[in-house]
Amino acid sequence: MTTTVERFPLLSASEFDAACKHLVESFETYGVNQHSWLSVEVVDRYSVKYVRITKPLPNIHQNLGDSTTLPGEPNYEDFEDDEELLSTNSTPQMVIEYDIILSPSYQVPVLYFSIIDPNFKLPPTMQTLYQYVIPPQYNEQTRSVGAIGGITVTDHPHTNFPVFFIHPCQTSAVMEASAGENELNPYEYMLMWIGSLGGYIGLNVPLALTSGIKVGSPLPQTTVNSPWMSKNPRMMDE
């Protein structure tokens, strides 16, 4: 029997592990019904487990060519067409890896993310972040410590590679505002967390992954209609 998060909006280690496992299982079952995410896996590094979501970077190969000059912002409206171009392009595919790691101090999930670029043309800089990851409509909201806590470059806590990360200082407030009076189980918590924060950085919740949620669950309605999601309807993918 699935239980609700005991100390919401805080998440325990066991609840986080359960949410990660459920997310992987849901992707294995329903992932064929969506095209936004390439993979979802649990990473076990030095006895610490966290979940990694991989998705394509919008197609920029034809713009980059052999030049190191960074072109303009990607066209997010043509994202599905870009995926088809990426799959047929001989150039190695660029992807974004999103690592969701539980913060032992804040006791909430924290998002670390990076562009995996086989040609090393996109360094982990704020310029790269705003040109290729953050949708243009969220530029102003993410440039300051506000709704989501601010985005910076830091060392990944388990790989030591430079990555982008969203500071968790506002996460509890975001989750409380999103959930309202509803109680959530760990998986519902995880989907709502991704839906409330991830859209700012191009990580939207595939609707297919809500297929396994029981009828009557508050998650789909509260996620879509939360104060955060109602202002940002693109935070869920078809």
Would you write up a description of this structure?
This protein is of the alpha+beta class and 238 residues long. It has one domain (13-231). Helices cover 32% and strands 19% of the residues. It contains 9 helices and 8 strands. The strands form 2 sheets. The chain has a 6-stranded antiparallel β-sheet with strand order 1-2-3-4-6-5, covered by helices on one side. A two-stranded parallel ribbon has the order 7-8. It is globular and about 45 Å long. The model is unreliable at 60-80 and 219-235 (pLDDT under 50).
Average predicted confidence as pLDDT: 80
Low-confidence stretches: 60-80, 219-235
Radius of gyration: 17 Å
Number of strands: 8
Described by the principal axes of the CA atoms, the overall outline is globular
Q: Count of helices?
A: 9
> What proportion strand?
15-25%
Q: In this structure, how is the largest beta sheet organized? A: 6 strands, antiparallel
Query: What structural category do the secondary elements indicate?
Result: alpha+beta
Q: N-to-C SSE series?
A: HEEHHEEHHEEHHEHHE
Order of strands in the sheet with most strands: 1-2-3-4-6-5
Helix content bin? 25-40%
Write the layout of secondary structure elements.
Layout: H1 13-30, E1 39-45, E2 48-56, H2 61-64, H3 79-88, E3 95-102, E4 109-116, H4 126-132, H5 139-142, E5 151-155, E6 162-166, H6 171-179, H7 186-197, E7 205-206, H8 219-225, H9 227-231, E8 236-237
Helix pairs in contact: 1-7, 6-7, 7-8
Protein name: Ubiquitin-like-conjugating enzyme ATG10
Family: Belongs to the ATG10 family.
InterPro entries: Atg3/Atg10
